Amino acid sequence: MNKYIENLHWRYATKNFNPEKQVSKDDLETLLEAIRLSASSYGLQPYEVMVIEDPKVRAKLKPAAFGQPQITDSSCLLVFAFNTNVDEHYLEEFIKNNSETRNKPVEDFQDLKEMIQNSVLTFTEEAKHNWASRQVYIALGNLLSAAADLKIDVCPMEGFNSAEFDELLDLKSKNLKSVTLATVGYRSETDQLKDALKVRKSKEELFTRI
């Protein structure tokens, strides 16, 4: 079996982490870089990720995640939050970053700028938030894949009170709204699912070949 596919079979949404085993700084930076390099619509990356290692902060957040143990037992908690204010200023900064990164004049990106102005910036606030939150999940998927490749466990989580997280982390002041979490670390030997076979649809059920 291809090693990458083998690692995807190995990964699962770990519920019980070993609190004594920590992800190394280098491996954590690799995972964060995988998130940073994720695809997003127009490359806009309308989100930020809170990297929370402080055990005191995670203990405060735990009740807002219904007391789930992985919040504090994992090595690190990642809070994915979308930007609620993707506006003309956000676009100007994006174009500036393109210009500086690729060492080209701002004018070279005028067509891209107008394309975004005529699409994303015309969305209603609700549509814009839905669009931004979907970009978050692309980044989350990249994290899961990269972590599996390093044999690091991750549990993606939607079971939390977003409003409480936003308040505790003061996300509103940063124009951010939490949408999903990921706990990162190493599975406990007591986790009942660690040796379970992965259950998925068959290829025949999942794919329509045309």
Automatic annotation (TrEMBL):
It comes from Psychroflexus torquis (strain ATCC 700755 / CIP 106069 / ACAM 623). Its cofactor is FMN. Pfam families: Nitroreductase (PF00881). Belongs to the nitroreductase family. The keyword Oxidoreductase applies. The keyword NAD does not apply. This is Dihydropteridine reductase, putative. Residues 10-186 form the Nitroreductase domain. Keywords: Flavoprotein, FMN, NADP, Oxidoreductase. GO terms for molecular function: oxidoreductase activity.
